[in-house]
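Structure tokens please, single chain.
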Amino acid sequence: MAHAQNCVVISTAALRILVSMPGAPNDVSTDPPGNRWGGLQPPAPPSRLRRVVLWSALIALLISAQAALLWLTWRLENARVQEAVDQTAASAAADIRQRLADDIQALQQLLWVDAQGSRWTESAAAQLQQRRELLRLELRDERFALRRTVVSAHHPAQFGAIPREAMLLDAETACATALRYASPAFSRTYFVPTRGGLGMEVVDLCLPNQTEGRDTELVVATVALRDLLEQALPADLLRRHEVLLIEADGTRLARAGARRGAGVYTSERLVDLAGFTLPLRLDSTTEAPSWIANLTTALVIGLGVALSAVLLLLGYDMKRRSAAEQGLAAAFALRKAMEDSLVTGLRARDLQGRITYVNAAFCNMVGFTAEELLAAEQPLYWPPEMAETYTQRQAGRLSGASAPPREGHETVFMRRNGERFPVLIFEAPLVDGRGRHAGWMSSVLDMGPQRRIEELSRQQQEKLQAAARLATMGEMATLLSHELNQPLAAIASYASGSLNLLPAGEDQAPADLDTQLMVRQATTRIAEQADRAGRVIRSVHQFVRRRERLRESMRADELIEAVLPLIRLAARRSHIRVELDLPKPMPRVSCDRTMVEQVLLNLARNGIQAMEDDSIAPADRLLTVRVRPVDARWVECCVTDHGTGIAQHVGERLFTPFFTTKPEGMGIGLAMCRTVVEQHGGALDFHGNPGVRGCTFRFTLPAAESRSSSGAPAGADPGPDHGPTPPPPPSP
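Here you go.
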């Protein structure tokens, strides 16, 4: 549909360009008889009065544009400079805030220095040496009693005129606020005089330390506002601007930078930090634009030259107009060729509904010639059974009662051979050279090929869905056969052993008590494995239906004990020793018991099969099952063998479904194990045993305590988007 609309837009644009070309048929003074392209006559040349009015309007418009340009140029220059000053002010405020934040971060280190020795004094002196805006550092207790004090070497006599005790009110207020909110706080600004009648505006910064187990301590720092401006702001900014910190009423507190700003471009920003809020004012040294007069002169001269050139070009163009009319025939031929090259059908109708123009693409679409379509009173491509409906629709469209939709409308046309085919029609009003509505212009697209492609796509989609359903059924059948093979083999083994223990005939003596006990035990194992096969079927059924499985809390050794008889049975046939490495106390896990038992059994059987190679001595055939808690949230289970190991190219595809190195294997065992572990939120991985043969498979399960603490309901599967993140596998 989008491609069709693009074609329509391109076709319509090309047609409009052709209609508007100099020498188009609407401008032809000698319109040949029988030409039904609108039937319009060329417009009459404008009168002298009309030309005077038009030229006067043009000159007045140019003068107005010149004046507006000059005014906008002056406004633009002022706006540009003011915007730069505003950005600089915002940057300066941010720099001051950052400097104060850095001071707070640096002073917080003093709270952790022991105040009993000289370390605190040395650390405070170092901070004062690095940060010139800090005049004095004091260490006080929670009753505001002075414990330590250090004065900056850059301002040694700053507190000589008035004792420090006379200026503690603001600092006490700031410390009370800091203790109340357990965060740094600033005091109000105040003036500190010095000997000689000078002084400076300062502000006190109080940092509390309310750490549990330690006495509350306060670090009070006196910050000089003028030095703060000089240290926080870059030199380039201070060279080009006068920077002021002022009160809300405009009283100047501190000044830095240029001696005096020009007063033309100013900007104010607020510096706010924890009770410290002061307006920051920037006064640029830039004067008002003085080159506007030269620019005005240049613009006037340029516009005068441009206006003269325009007048000359207009006069020259009027002379060339008569020569351009001589190329009318060539232009008409070119337009006709362009129209015939379009693949979109074009159709023009007058206000009476008669066809006045069709292009070659439209004729090829319906199978009728242009002469036949122009001579017919009723369109020949209308299906007879729909002619009445089309007639009513055309009447409403021509009367203006129903406007054509912008997105077009679909309908059905008929070819010469009677074949019906769908089309998409876009219509727009056809306007003549005088702006009058002369008819309707339509762009017609054949939608038959697109409909066939859509139908073919639908059929292919249905086939893909059917194939997907069959593939899913095949995977589930393979999974069931793989999972049921193990318990069914155990059932067969126990049944065979029971038959061997029973008497061969009726004439033989009955079995002794030990034999009966062994038969009973084997029969019990057969029942257990049959029940296990049923649980496997139920678990796989739940896995297929993607239901939320119930999980239970149990000790990790219970999972091992459930599959240990099967593991020992398989290991005994291959002369393999099985060892358990279990911690005390035994951790508890939350899992789907049946599926996790299958994971343990699959990993153990793979380890046993890896040690059945003749190159491995019987004494070295050892299978170890180990359980250890990783942390409070995860429990790790490891199955270690001393077999032939795993090659690198095999390890890269080990968990790929249907990949196997065994002639009788299906290649879904390890893939299923990883899926089960990941559904529990854990991870399954393997690595070689350093210094010895074989490899170790390990996987993690959520601890029962972690599930209760996470807020998830007991027994519910949190899914991949819930629960704690499993620990990354440790490096081999």
